[in-house]
């Protein structure tokens, strides 16, 4: 089992920045990828960014060049968000996947970007 706790959401004006943090606990050695998803009202949850063991990253086209995902040790991941837009408004979820294919989610943190 893996538990994920996010922090760092909030309200920011368009063009501003926020940094999200996620800390994993439990069976962290089983994690082979961590990432961030988001879900806006009335929309499906979508991948924002992912980072794999070894450092390879993946980003949604809509955030490339504006968001940066990083990982510290085996159990922390961060999402640095810059040049935020109102369409980035959503609940952001931390995600972890193990080598056994199990997936875990954090409780979510609200990001609101005002125009």
3D structure, described in words:
By secondary structure, the chain is an all-beta fold. Helix content is 0%, strand content 59%. The chain has strands at 2-7, 10-13, 18-26, 31-39, 46-52, 57-59, 67-72, 76-81, 90-98, 103-105, 109-114. The strands form two sheets. Strands 2, 4, 5, 6, 9, 10 and 11 form a seven-stranded mixed β-sheet that branches. A four-stranded antiparallel β-sheet has the order 1-3-8-7, with no helix packed on it. The radius of gyration is 13 Å and the shape is globular. The model has no long low-confidence stretch (mean pLDDT 96).
Rg over CA atoms, rounded to whole Å, is 13 Å
What letter string, H or E per element, gives the SSE order? Answer: EEEEEEEEEEE
**Parts with pLDDT < 50 across at least 5 consecutive residues:** none
Cα shape: globular
Largest sheet: 7 strands, mixed
Query: Fraction of residues in helices?
Result: under 10%
Strand content bin: over 45%
Q: For the residues shown, what is the average pLDDT?
A: 96
Intertermini distance: 40 Å
State the total count of DSSP E strands. 11
Structural class by secondary-structure content: mainly beta
**Continuous helix count:** 0
Brief characterization of the structure:
The protein is mainly beta and 115 residues long. Helix content is 0%, strand content 59%.
Keywords:
115 residues; seven-stranded mixed β-sheet; 0% helix; mainly beta
Topology:
Blueprint: E1 2-7, E2 10-13, E3 18-26, E4 31-39, E5 46-52, E6 57-59, E7 67-72, E8 76-81, E9 90-98, E10 103-105, E11 109-114
């Amino acid at each position: 089992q893996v538990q994920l706790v996010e922090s760092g959401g909030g309200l920011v004006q368009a063009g501003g920045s926020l940094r999200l943090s996620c800390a994993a606990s439990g069976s962290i050695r089983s994690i082979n990828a961590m990432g961030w998803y988001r879900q806006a009202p009335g929309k499906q949850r979508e991948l924002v960014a992912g980072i794999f063991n070894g450092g390879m990253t993946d980003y949604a086209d809509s955030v490339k060049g504006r968001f940066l995902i990083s990982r510290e040790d085996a159990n922390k991941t961060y999402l640095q968000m810059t040049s935020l837009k109102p369409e980035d408004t959503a609940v952001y979820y931390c995600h972890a996947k193990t080598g056994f294919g199990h997936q875990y989610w954090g409780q979510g943190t609200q990001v609101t970007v005002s125009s």
